Amino acid sequence: MTSRDAAATVLTRSSIVLRSSTMTSKLKTSLRILPVALMIAGFGASALPAGATGYHCPPAGDAHVTIDAPVQTSTTVNASADGGTATASSNGGSNNTASAGGFFFGGTAEAGNGGPATADASGGSVSIGTVSGGNNTGATIDVDDTTGGSFGGDASVDINAPVQTDTTVTASADGGTASASSNGGSNNTASAGGFFFGGTAEAGNGSEATADASGGTVSIGAVYGGNNSGAMIDVDDTKGGTSCGYYVSYAPYAPLAPSGKASVHVDAPVHTSTTVTASADGGTASASSNGGSNNTASAGGFFGGGTAQAGNGGPATADASGGSVSIGTVSGGNNTGATIDVDDTYGGSYGGSASVDINAPVNTDTTVNASADGGTATASSDGGSDNSADAGFGGTAQAGNGGPASADASGGTVTIGSVDGGDNTGATITVDETEG
To answer: What does the domain layout of the chain look like in residue ranges?
Structure first.
């Protein structure tokens, strides 16, 4: 065998030895990895394999931030100058006799005549300057990162920061109730005759009766209930805790406990209510000056008759006043919603939920009620019945005549300046990433 053949033989044997060593090494490695792989495959579907040691994670702590910071303003003005109740009575009597006769000239005779009666029930006139219940600003809230504890702790931020403004102005100067009565009496006799010339005779005459029921005139300056701003809210990152696993001594862990939830709830509405109610309505007025019944008046004279009146009603006036409302500027608008900035919201790893719930409406109610309605006015000045008047030769005789009667029921005139309930701006909301 040549030397070349011997070398070839040695080389061939070395290659065999080298290949054998390589295969042996791979086999040993496979034998070491196989149990671990089988354990990992079975661990995901069952509990610890036989002989393994491990432990459950401790309970995770939750992180909660709760903020209650409402701004509530209530401004109420109630003013009244309403009329009350007034009653005046000056009735004439009944079954009266009056005689003022003279030999030459007759005088003046009056019997059962009612006198003037006046009822007012005053009240009235309300003056209110500027009423300002607005220009309010909500809370400024800054929340840093909120993170649930490791191994599944929840993280939540709950903020309640509404801005509510109620401005109410109520003013009234309504008329009241006024009654005036000046009725003449009944069955009266008056004689003022003279032998030559008759005088003046009156019997059962009613006189003037006036009822007013006043009230009236309301003046309100500017009413400001608006220009309110919502809260300034800044919430940094909110993160739920990561789920824990079931740790073993020789294998990685598989997640078993639920992941932490992350939730952000913000309630920051802006509610503005501005209400102005003013009235100067007329009230109820009654005036009566009725003449009496069955009266006789005689003012006769031989040469010339005088003046005779029997059962005559006098003038009656009823007004029921009220009226005139003046309201300046009413501003309930120019409101701005909350400014809300929510940074990233993450649920914990392995399926933790993430939610952001924001309620931030802007609600503006502006109401103006004004009335200066007329009331009820009644005036009566009726003449009486079955009366006799004799004024002799060429005189003047009156019997059962009604006088002038006037009823008004006033009210009227409402003046309102500008009413501003608009120019409102909704909330400014920025929400960064929300990931479950």
So the answer is: 1-50, 62-435
